[in-house]
Amino acid sequence: MSSIVDEDLNVIAESIREEAKLLEGRTVLITGGSGFIGSYVVAVIDLLNRKHFSRPCKVISLDIHITGQSSKNNLVKEIDSPHIRFIRHDVRFPIDIKEPVDYIVCAAGVASPIYYKRYPIETIEGTILGVKNALELALQKKIAGLLYFSSSEIYGDPDPNFIPTPETYKGNVSSIGERSCYDESKRLGETLCMAHFVVHRIPVKIVRPFNVYGPGMKSTDYRVIPTMLSQGIAGRDLTVHDKGNQTRTFCYITDAIEGFFKVLLRGRDGEVYNVGNEAEEINMLALAETIASSVFNNNVRVKLISYPSNYPKDEPRRRCPDLSKIRKELGYSSNVGLKAGLLRAFEWMRSSAG
Ligand SMILES: NC(=O)c1ccc[n+]([C@@H]2O[C@H](COP(=O)([O-])OP(=O)(O)OC[C@H]3O[C@@H](n4cnc5c(N)ncnc54)[C@H](O)[C@@H]3O)[C@@H](O)[C@H]2O)c1
To answer: For the residues of 270-316, what is the DSSP string, one character each?
Structure first.
């Protein structure tokens, strides 16, 4: 359903209209440009090129389609532009680009728990070597900004006194558990970025997204919202792990992408920003019930199941961002409520056989 995606891309382009001018005539290199978030970053730049810029922003996108979401170059949009190049490249290996690069976005990663349990070594290497290779490239070019996608997972299972969680919370993470391949590599990725900021003054900016969702996430992504939506579309029960009392907050893609661009283009160098939605912390049982009633008119049931064996143990009990910093410094706000966002993700999934 491209009209939903087109509407969303327009909302994003409008929300970053001022700061996006900095991209005009520049070149952005993005790793993971064919993933869920990367697809939106690339599609927004394509839209800005077509509608707003007189000098196009070039994009070089690197991806190897490891997570099987899709073999397409873009999950949400056919991109046919002389200014946007898709290169199949594994970011664990050096990134050799001859032309000038102005901005680097490091969005490659194995982001879904089922996949990082299946590919723990690739997850670690993709994150650490991926950001290391991007920083090496940044050293060769005179870049205006490098955006590193860390994760809210770096907080681990936060102390309840630190929920909502501010950027200053140091985390409660296992170094050897089944989630550590993701959590610890994201943490070291942040450290690598900060070391390059301190030693070489590379203008790094770090984002810690909190559960972004929306059109483009397919059933094969295996994160909770696309999983429940695809179960409901197939008329199956919506399955909830354990008792379903673990909580999350969910950020609709338009809000998240606005936040990411704001941090890349106006965020302070060497700083980290939470990006998410602080308004609706919800437990997984309530999420399933909301999806059953709001999306499927109670024509599907909710069923509690034990944790599947392919799901990593020790998931955080609660997660909710403190967004004071990005709100105050960059004027960020999340505008799309959970029910509205779920309906948009559902419409896209139903019509695209996702
Ligand atoms: N979506 C979220 O809610 C969320 C939350 C926190 C952090 N993040 C981080 O944001 C980034 C983007 O997430 P997403 O939701 O788009 O995930 P995604 O899985 O949809 O996209 C990641 C992309 O990176 C690519 N990739 C993985 N390893 C690679 C490698 N070695 N070389 C080249 N490409 C590689 C994958 O093929 C995929 O297309 C990731 O780093 C993720 O860890 C996302």
So the answer is: TEEEEES--S--EEHHHHHHHIIIIITTT-S-EEEEPPPTTSPS---
Show the low-confidence residues of the chain (pLDDT under 70).
1-2, 67-70, 353-354
In this prediction the pTM is 0.96
Residues within a 6 A CB radius of ligand 1: 31-32, 34-38, 62-67, 69, 90-92, 107-111, 126, 130, 149, 151-152, 209, 211-212
pLDDT digits (tens, 9 = 90+) for 108-122: 999 888 888 889 999
pLDDT single digits (tens) 251-266: 999 999 999 999 999 9
Q: Closest residue (by CA) to atom 41 of ligand 1?
A: 109
CA of 299 to the centre of ligand 1 (A): 33
Domains and CATH numbers, the chain: 2-215+252-280+316-337 (3.40.50.720)
